[in-house]
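Reagents: none. Just compute today. Transcription elongation factor GreB.
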Amino acid sequence: MAKSDYITRAGWNALDQELKYLWKEERPLITRSVSEAAAQGDRSENAEYIYGKRRLREIDRRVRFLSKRLEALKIVDYHPNQEGKVFFGAWVELEDEHGQINQYRIVGGDEFDPSKNWISIDSPVARALIGKEIDAEIQVNTPKGLTTFYINKIWYDKT
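Predicted 3D structure written out:
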């Protein structure tokens, strides 16, 4: 499944900050250390030189990716018309058939973070939630089989 090009404003800002940090701070620092290591002579056994060159390749690869990705992403801001329904950026409190309650935020694939309970808009749960209202019942095919969830609460970060 293709990754959606949607992102929250905060998510876009975080990727933009990472790009600026890599390009303006870390890359020049690593370039200087590689130049200093190269000046020491034999490069074939110079761990600092080898590591530095490898890190520069990693930085350049990430910079290229971020540059292209930031151009393709579409920032989705909160709009008052979203109130009462689940859309991109929503926080949703779900209760399963066993009474287990979890809260999730629907975000873009570039910013999902299970440790923060942020789920991708491309996930089966998020897809089932889009457009639903409080007290709606959804069914999602999970690794444990078909699971029913009830929407207890919907809210948005309005920043």
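The beta strands are 6-7, 74-75, 90-96, 101-107, 118-120, 137-142, 145-156.
Action item: order primers for follow-up constructs.
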